[in-house]
């Protein structure tokens, strides 16, 4: 029987809060149960287990991050949109490190949940839409999406790990990196499709 006040959404949110506090790897059914003031067994009415919970945290985080990026980029294009997009990405990673990690780690998620989740699909749409303003078409669009994701994630992951020990503040390097990305996107090199080298 379902415990009063518990729901899939509440269990998922509690798991996300734990992830932000102790890291995604620190999330356990016991920790989430303690946070909710229930016994571990009570959670299995709402999630199938730890992997299912982590998958739900990933989808929650993808939705949250996408909403923030959509709000930040609304009505913007070109460099303004790129900077707003990147800043929203970085800010979400700073504020919600455990949730953010869930969006970047390979987690097996129930395909039915993914099909119903708007976050991942909307994230792709937002990214491609922003890049089309630079006049990119396939396969360059996909290559540019991969470049942006690698740059944004690489920067915030190194920053979170304390990987920027130089006295220059990371924010200043972030701003310059976005300047460089904008310049690259405006002058995207011609495709080398079919080039044997």
Topology:
Layout: H1 8-22, H2 29-36, H3 40-43, H4 50-73, H5 78-95, H6 97-104, H7 111-116, H8 118-132, H9 140-160, H10 170-186
Helix pairs in contact: 1-2, 1-4, 4-5, 4-6, 4-8, 5-6, 5-9, 5-10, 8-9, 9-10
Shape category: globular
The description of the largest β-sheet is: none
Q: What's the number of extended β-strand segments?
A: 0
Beta-strand percent range: under 5%
Can you tell me the residue ranges where pLDDT is under 50 for at least 5 consecutive residues? Answer: none
Distance between the termini: 63 Å
Task: Report on the architecture of this protein.
- The protein has 197 residues and is mainly α.
- The chain is 69% helix and 0% strand.
- It contains ten helices and no strands.
- Helix 4 packs across helix 6, helix 8 (118-132) crosses helix 9 and helix 9 (140-160) runs antiparallel to helix 10.
- The chain is globular and about 60 Å long.
- The chain starts with 7 loop residues before the first helix and ends in an 11-residue tail after the last helix.
- The model has no long low-confidence stretch (mean pLDDT 92).
Question: Brief overview, please?
Answer:
With 197 residues, the protein is mostly helical. The chain has ten helices and no strands. Helix content is 69%, strand content 0%.
């Amino acid at each position: 029987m379902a415990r009063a006040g518990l729901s899939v959404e509440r269990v998922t949110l509690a798991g996300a809060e734990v992830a932000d506090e102790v890291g995604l790897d620190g999330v356990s059914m016991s920790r989430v149960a303690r946070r909710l003031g229930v016994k571990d067994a009570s959670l299995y009415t709402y999630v199938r287990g730890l992997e299912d919970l982590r998958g739900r945290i990933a989808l929650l985080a993808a939705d949250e991050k996408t909403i923030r990026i959509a709000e930040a980029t609304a009505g913007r294009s070109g460099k303004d949109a790129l900077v707003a997009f990147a800043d929203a990405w970085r800010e979400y990673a700073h504020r919600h490190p455990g949730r953010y990690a869930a969006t970047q780690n390979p987690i097996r998620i129930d395909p039915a949940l993914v099909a119903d989740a708007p976050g991942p699909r909307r994230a792709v749409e937002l990214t491609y839409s922003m890049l089309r303003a630079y006049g990119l078409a396939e396969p360059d669009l996909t290559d540019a999406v991969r470049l942006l994701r690698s740059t944004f994630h690489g920067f915030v992951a190194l920053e979170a790990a304390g990987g920027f020990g130089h006295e220059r503040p990371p924010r200043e390097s972030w701003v310059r990196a976005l300047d460089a990305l904008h310049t690259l996107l405006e002058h995207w090199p011609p495709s080398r499709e079919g080039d044997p080298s």
